[in-house]
Amino acid sequence: MSITELFPYIPFTDDGLFALVPLIILGCGGTLSLMLAPLEKKGELISRLIAMATLLASAITLCLQSEAQQVVGGVLLVGAKTSYLMLALHVVAAFALFLLSGEDKKESLLAESSPLVIYALCGMCLLISSHHLLFQFIAIEIMSLAIYVLVTMRRTHKSSAEAGMKYFILGSIASATFLYGSALIYGSTGFFTLPEIALAPTTVLKTAGFVLVIAGLLFKVGAVPFHGWVPDVYEGSSLPVTGFMAAAVKFAAFTVLANVAAAGFADETGLVIKWILTVAAALTMAWGNFAALTQRGLKRLLAYSSVAHTGYLIVGVIAAGATAGAPVALYLIFYAFATLGAFACLQTLAPGSDDVPIEALAGRGLTHPFTSAGLTLFLFGMAGIPMTAGFIGKYLVFGSGVTSGHVPLVVLGVLTSVAAVYYYLRIVVSLYMKPVESGHPAPALKFGAAVVTLICMATTIYYGLAPANIISFFEKL
Amino acid sequence: MLSLIVFLPTIAALLLFFIPSSVARKYAFGVSIASFLLALNLWFSFDTTSAAMQFSEVIPWIPTLGIHYALGVDGIALPLVALAAFIAPIAWLGTWPQEAVQKEKFFVACALLLQTGMYGTFLATDLFLFYFFWEIVLIPMFFLIGIWGGQNRIYATVKFFIYTMIGSLLMLVAIFWLAGMAKEQLGTTTTLMSDLAKLSLPFNAANPWMSPQALLFMAFTLAFVIKVPMIPFHTWLPDAHVQAPTLGSVFLAAVLLKMGTYGIIRISLPFFPEASLWAAPVLQALGCVGILYGAFCAMAQDDFKKLVAYSSVSHMGYIVVGLFSFNTIAISGSLYQMVNHGIASAGLFIVVGMLYERLHTRDLNKFGQLAKSTPMMAVAFMIMTLSSVALPGTNGFVGEFTILLGTFQQSIVLAGLCGLGVIFGAVYSLKAYQKVMLGPSNVEVHGHWHAHAHSDAHDDHGHGHGEETFAVVTHDMTAKEILAMSLLTVFVFVVGFFPETFFGASKVSLEALATALGAK
To answer: Which of A34, A71, B48, B145 makes an SS bond possible with A16, Cβ 3.0 to 4.6 Å?
Structure first.
């Protein structure tokens, strides 16, 4: 088979081109930012400003397109939903840039951090809209390569290099698994595009292909048993990068996991997928939550908590089955704000290079009332306490789980999340109920972190109290 | 009107930003008075001849999920709302500290939010909203115990939070399930209680464990009995009570525990009648064990506060027994007991708090002959004790007697066993009274608050204690405390002699509930 058969020439329409504009802007803006970053004077600042401008421009073009359409011959499906998800990712990326600006110079993240965030975002946007396995692979690689570098960037820290290597090697294996799976699917069905694959007859080869593709994606979202990299990478990266990964990478990877699983659920392959996902969800919820109980470092704790949230999200994916899965998308948005907000608070409360223990936050409720209140709110959100968006997300995901008949899985989910409540409370207890420890100097509130905390708090409370509009928006799609 | 009652404390808490810390407590007292007046207005405009939800406010909140912001009050919710509104000003007055607490504003904000949660739980007529307020209550209480509590406060508050959370998360799953069933049976997803009441929930008498109604019943009831707390889920309560600041203890005992029994009477019984009947023997047995076990534990305590906490376990046991007796009289008695225990336990916790504030101890052996120096407190404490042991003429008698009467019609053995609890209750309550107010102390303790007041006992200072006994001396009640205790006293006697004045409003609703349950 020749390459032209695989990728037949597709005539671009004007509309189709317009749908690609955000990606083009991101690509060009990122490159421009990258080229200006090494400037001797204020290179970092200029590169960051360009990155911001790129984000803004791309976001504006995103807002202009809402019509559902297929672009590039069905490779990309764009519409109101993808636009909304991409916009949320843009916001997350903007937050990451804000937080990066507040990083200590001694951290010596290279100036290229801003363009790398833009590149990663470009990959994520492509990933979200793509319904073609090969394009998904390419998008995953664009995203992941940028993230690998971001993780490894802290030159002064050994743990950073270790984390980067670990992530890179394991991530490559996952990518290879994904690619091999797509090859099997193509071999069996003759298609790379998901809608056509869903309609193709079931064969052993196709099922095997789906299993491999999903295994690759489970790695990216950090599900047990493919979660080994998560704590180390979270610990090794700088706080803004960790926050960006926890919020955005998971977001994009889950969206594509939901898309792929939905295609697989269409026929008998679905039984195998469902079985795999059910086991993965149960293990992930249980292991993530119970492992988090034993953590002392804040970043590792949040890493395991993020693993646990992956488990809840997989329940949502199973429940959605072959449908669009609004609960998963909403949970991802709400979780992104909560987790990024939490990392922004940590940047203020526990700055510095190493993973600090929970006790380092002791008494911060008095010295840093605003940030402590923020962190408390985000943790309550992740724990699923009412009045926060996290509760609405959990209500939607678990609710869809129950209505689709997965009661035991949901019961396991809520019971393990009691463990989660315990470890989140440990942080709150430390903030408000312990005296300040003398060994840890009180850090100053940074502008970027404050802005991110404030916006994330507002979002978390707003969607916690008035989620009606966003829910009906996603339900209608 | 109901929304105003629910959210007045929250609005007030937000306005705290503009209130100086020095008057925060007075401000909160004012808010609680305003709240009380609103509740009073509700009380007098309530139509006692109707069993339907009144003053209903139903606004779609999250339409796609069928979730409504729905409030309403009937004869079952009304006494509890009144209780919460009545207790709040008394709690502020009775626990007024001698010196400002640290982080006073945060303390006041927590207490105000707690009130919103309490009112909301009692007034919600949408299951989602009920859950929402039910959980909201946890957060201020978590901070109240954790920040302003005693030595072991962190352990206690985390235990309290986790315990309640286990129950309520399973309740959440049950809510999903009910909403899903509503979609199947009614065609729309809804969490309105009035809609969910129309569902037919299959109950399989041959294999009850796996039938949906039994599972739903268990999920809801577990959440409720943890809050009550019923044996064997009671272990969080003594810890939480002992560590909580007095104000927190008062709210916890007087109102928060009632949320559990209110949940049973509002949701478990009417929604799952067959499953309730099926599980009633077990729950009644546990309730009865709770009455006796709580009483025995209370007898063995040296810590005054722990004694009162275990007495709560014992008295709340009556309510569980009464509710699951499927007897009209006993169910009514349970509602009375909810309010009456709220009054008596609030009074007792305020007494404990007053003593701790003055003497910095809760050890019963360290008190003694306090009646000499604090006659007013002795009288107030006696009245609360008598109410707690259900002396005829006090409100406590109305509740416990009615429950026992109803239970007697159902099962003589059960009523007899529960009746033993009244006797044991008298034993430990009077023992506490005797040790604190009458009997001599063999340990010398000074009132820390008014140094000049302990001159009587001071002569022995520096000598070995040997066989000597001491009268503990301290200051009597302040004007605020007298006001708080006398309000409680008025309630104790008015309801004790004329129960209809307070519980007449509930009659129709209780009858409607009993008819629906097919109670005898």
So the answer is: A71
